[in-house]
Design brief:
Mean pLDDT: 82
Largest sheet: 6 strands, antiparallel
Number of strands: 19
Low-confidence stretches: 119-128, 182-192
CATH architecture: 4-Layer Sandwich
CATH superfamily: Mitochondrial biogenesis AIM24
Strand order of the largest sheet: 5-6-3-10-13-8
């Protein structure tokens, strides 16, 4: 499978497919396509898996795009300013991603719903109790808010990240939440009560922008009618 990145501010990925090859994405993820692409939509794995995706903040339905001739192409665009990260899922032994990070993938990749291991991580982590996991073999593409920073943590190496800036991490990475120390830091530090603590080994993908927080800043500056 060949692909190319398009654009910088709100990027897209264009994938070239030969006959029989299939890509899938969340419903509404396709931006453009050539002739020779057939679309079908289903829950990909049944109603329960579709409901799991809904709880993770994604669409219940998955759109599949299959090439019926060689050299067909299809583009998938991000929805906010940011980056698109290609991931070889099999080479990375899978990846756990935050809600909203999945853009599209080859049909050989499985997209599963997973629960955070600790109640505190789900309750205070900023991404809810439910995350998603990519498994199998093939290429997947992640939608990242802002720019991307990738780190390979060594065994026992710790990285502390502000809530909402964790985009994805290897299943081997330990994910938990710790409280910011010091009442002054909590009240005046501007970083909130909690940080995400990631402990290696494994890959971590960070994003420089938390879009929900960014949207909140914009909403606060919109004059009210009252």
């Amino acid at each position: 499978m060949n692909y190319r990145m398009v654009g910088k501010t709100i990027p897209a990925v264009e994938v070239q497919l030969n006959q029989g090859e299939t890509m899938f994405s969340q419903s509404g993820g396709m931006a453009w396509q050539s002739d020779g692409i057939e679309m079908s939509t289903n829950t990909r794995g049944g109603v329960l898996k579709g409901l799991g995706r809904m709880f993770a903040g994604e669409s219940m339905f998955i759109a599949h795009y299959q090439a019926v001739r060689d050299n067909a192409f299809i583009g998938f665009a991000s929805t906010v300013p940011g980056s698109i990260v290609p991931v070889d899922v099999g080479k990375n032994n899978g990846l756990i991603i935050q809600k909203g990070a999945f853009l599209c993938a080859e049909n050989s990749v499985q997209l599963e719903t997973v629960f955070t291991k600790k109640f505190s991580a789900g309750f205070f982590g900023g991404e809810g109790f439910i995350l998603q996991q990519l498994q199998g073999n093939g290429m997947a593409f992640l939608e990242i808010d802002g720019d991307v920073e990738q780190r390979d943590l060594q065994p026992g190496e710790v990285l502390k990240v502000d809530t909402g800036n964790v985009a994805a991490f290897s299943p081997s990475v330990s994910y938990e939440i710790e409280t910011v120390k010091g009442m002054g830091n909590i009240l005046f530090g501007g970083e909130g009560l909690f940080l995400t603590k990631l402990t290696g080994p494994g890959k971590v993908i960070l994003q420089t922008m938390n879009f929900a927080e960014f949207a909140g800043h914009i909403a606060a500056r919109i004059p009210s009618n009252g």
